[in-house]
Design a protein that fits this description.
The chain is α+β, with helices and mostly antiparallel strands and about 700 residues long. It has 24 helices and 23 strands. It binds 2-(butylsulfanyl)adenosine (IVH).
């Protein structure tokens, strides 16, 4: 997660290259601070900017007057409201080593250790100053060129976190970041879509555009988090002003929150006070680990000398304070080229486009493909082959193409070809829904479907290879996986390269598969939108296939994590799968979940109450006795000892047999983390949240009775 070396900068070989770089940076800045839609991604801009800085250091006599280096906001935007005190930006470091050097440098300058550091998230939005007079919000000003900003007071009342009145009638200037949360971004995109058919490229540019737009016919909500408070006017000598000059930064933040203004103190990434570089590093690791799951973007961590005395003595450089630094996290968004679009047919016949990209590194991993949701989505965004596109990837999420960068078009872009027939079977495509589907549905991908059903985490039919499935299909023996259970000895023996022994083995494996628990049989059906974890929850909730089939969408929603959309899809899917399920029942395949008491017919909903944890159907009295009852358990790293052989799915099954709930991500609700070898970010996150962490061996003894 930590980058070891400072990232490379653009190499500028002569004055012409330097002048061109300056122009590109100036244009990108104007766009970034203007409508928020830059021609360069942050990473590319940083590289270019450092290249310009390096060239200027070596050729001080060649520095161009309009160069962005040495200016706040790259000198991009001016406004007409003078700032009370300049609004500065921050210097960056990109590695643990550089951070250590920065701390050492600061301590050398002070001639003593820094008393304490405040470590807080670097919010990915826009700086803004909010002026309160007598407790009333009277003016909002953007950062602008750092000395003068633009009046955006028309935004007053649309920014969550910036109350119209403070808890006390004080006069004060609060500075902080305006951004859009994921939810606000979605709402804003929907509004813009409805209005002019376009969307915003990302939350940051949506926030920038929204803040500066004076006369949009629709209003989009924004969010503010304060990160500093200043006396107003600067020379004020009220009690509050004096406190703001003397208190450490961390206490000023408490004061800001007490006045009713939002700070990150109320989020999972609250600022902390650290006294050593190790503590700072640990907090950086923790914030980086939770980054992907936050409801708003962070692009780094800001480290500030906490005490007023340390800040005053360290002072300011031309553009940045010497007492603070931004530790940049790897970019989660970059601009790259859309080279091609593949149309893949999934197990259930869904035909989905996938973007093939010029490789980029995002959040520490190399990305060559990204999802494009469906054909309608491609049209909506107006994507074209050869487009420069903004790609997003953070943590474990699947990379996605966000939007084309329209002003980087060269004219050589081509329309994206869309298929007329199913790319797998050349059959007709059902285009009545946004998600296209082969009219043959599952039958289109029969080999994949059978292979999936026979897989280790489903029916676990060990000796059934793909080539064998193909043979069986070609011989007309199977048309779906239920047909496997009615194969006769003679039929299998008659297949090419099958002898007595291999036939016996295969049929025995199939026979064993009949006894798998309902959770696995259900998973084998390959219901759209329902994987292993959801299949287990459904099976534990209902206990029998009959109960599942009897459930309507409302009853299905009582299963933990089952949203209404998914429940509705499940009802449709189950209707489609009924004949297949009937064949399985007729073949004698098990349709019950061991250890689960089926609900009394007609009382399924009632017995489960709100259905929040699905345990009522498991027999609450029994569940309370189990070692993991009421516990949410996450497994990470490689398992060893008695658990060494278990797949992650089998670990999850074990957790659930022992009464717990398995989950793949650590959150405040996690009760236990089983951390094996090479446990990484999940362990760091569990530590930061104070979640109990145990070894695979300790876990094995805890659930020994269920192994
Ligand atoms: S302190 C003089 N704290 O990052 C100190 N800035 O690259 C100025 N930012 O202009 C800023 N989160 O827009 C500070 N916790 C935080 C921040 C933060 C985001 C932004 C801010 C600033 C820019 C500098």
């Amino acid at each position: 997660m930590f980058m070891t070396d400072a990232p490379p900068h653009t190499e500028l070989l002569d004055h012409a290259a330097y002048a061109e770089a300056v122009q590109i940076a100036v244009d990108a800045n104007a766009a970034y601070y203007g409508d928020g839609e830059s021609t360069l991604d942050d990473d590319a801009y940083d590289r270019l900017f450092r290249g310009i800085q390096a060239y200027e250091n070596e050729h001080p006599d060649e520095v161009l007057p309009h160069s962005p280096a040495g200016k706040v906001a790259g000198g991009a935007v001016t406004g007409d409201v003078p700032h009370t005190v300049p609004m500065l930006s921050l210097d960056n470091v990109f590695s643990a080593e550089a951070l250590t050097r920065w701390v050492a440098g600061l301590e050398r300058r002070l001639g003593r250790p820094v008393a304490a550091f405040s470590v807080e998230p670097k919010l990915d939005g826009l700086a803004i100053s909010a002026r309160y007079h007598g407790g009333r919000l009277v003016q909002l000003v953007t950062r602008g060129n750092g000395t003068e900003g633009e009046d955006v007071s028309h935004g007053i009342g649309t920014v969550v976190g910036l109350p119209l009145t403070l808890a006390e009638p004080v006069t004060v200037e609060i500075r902080g970041e305006v951004l859009m949360t994921a939810e606000q971004f979605e709402a804003a995109c929907a509004k813009r879509q409805a209005h002019d058919g376009t969307t915003f490229a990302n939350p940051r540019s949506a926030a920038a555009g929204t803040l500066r737009a004076k006369d949009r016919p629709y209003v989009c909500e924004l969010t503010f988090f304060g990160y500093s408070a200043l006396p107003l006017p600067p020379g004020d000598d009220s009690e509050l002003a004096t406190r703001l000059r003397e208190l450490p930064h961390s206490e000023i933040m408490e004061l800001v929150a007490a006045l009713g203004v939002a700070t990150t103190g109320s989020t999972p990434v609250a600022g902390i006070v650290a006294t050593t570089v190790e503590e700072i590093q640990r907090r950086i690791g923790e914030l980086a680990a939770v980054r992907a799951e936050l409801p708003f973007g962070i692009d780094g961590i800001v480290i500030k000398a906490d005490s007023a005395a340390d800040q005053a003595e360290a002072g300011f450089g031309s553009r940045v304070p010497r007492w603070a630094i931004a530790y940049k996290l790897p970019a989660t968004e970059k601009i790259t080229k859309l080279i091609g679009v593949e149309w893949n047919v999934g197990r259930t016949g869904i035909i989905a486009p996938r973007a093939e990209l010029e490789e980029v590194e995002l959040d520490g991993s190399k990305v060559r493909y990204a999802t494009l949701h469906n054909a309608a989505d491609i049209t909506r965004r107006g994507l074209m082959l050869g487009d420069s596109v903004m790609v997003h990837k953070a943590g474990d999420v699947i990379p996605r193409v966000e939007a084309p960068v329209v002003h980087l078009r060269t004219g050589d872009e081509k329309p994206i070809p869309v298929p007329d027939v199913c790319p797998n079977c050349q059959g007709e495509i059902d285009k009545s829904q946004e998600r296209w589907r082969c009219v043959r549905g599952r039958a289109c991908k029969i080999i994949t479907s059978i292979l999936y059903a026979a897989g280790r985490d489903q029916l676990d039919i060990e000796t059934l290879a793909e080539s064998r499935i193909v043979q069986m299909i070609e011989a007309g023996l199977v048309a779906d996986f239920a047909d496997l259970f009615t194969l006769t000895h003679e039929q299998v023996l008659a297949l090419d390269r099958m002898g007595e022994t291999s036939t016996g083995k295969l049929l025995a494996a199939i026979e064993q598969a009949k006894a798998r628990p309902l959770s696995r049989v259900f998973c084998a059906l390959g219901v759209r939108g329902t994987g292993r974890a959801m299949s287990r929850r459904i099976a534990r909730h209902f206990g029998t296939m009959d109960a599942i089939l009897a459930a309507d969408a409302e009853a299905l929603q009582a299963v933990e994590g089952m949203a209404s959309k998914k429940a509705a899809l499940l009802v449709t899917e189950l209707a489609e799968l009924r004949p297949l399920i009937g064949k399985l029942v007729a073949a004698g395949v098990n349709m019950t979940e061991p250890g689960v008491t089926p609900p009394v017919p007609g009382q399924a909903g009632a017995a489960d109450g709100e259905g929040a944890d699905g345990e009522a159907a498991d027999g609450a009295a029994v569940a309370a006795e189990l070692p993991l009852s009421g516990k949410s358990v996450v497994v990470t790293g490689s398992m060893t000892g008695k658990l060494g052989e278990l797949s992650r799915n089998e670990m999850n099954e074990l957790i659930e047999r022992a009464g717990g709930r398995s989950s793949s991500s650590v959150s405040a609700r996690t009760s236990l983390l089983v951390a094996g070898e090479k446990a990484g970010s999940k362990r760091a996150k569990a530590e930061s949240l104070g979640v109990e962490i145990i070894t695979p061996d300790e876990f094995a003894s805890l659930v020994a009775a269920f192994l």
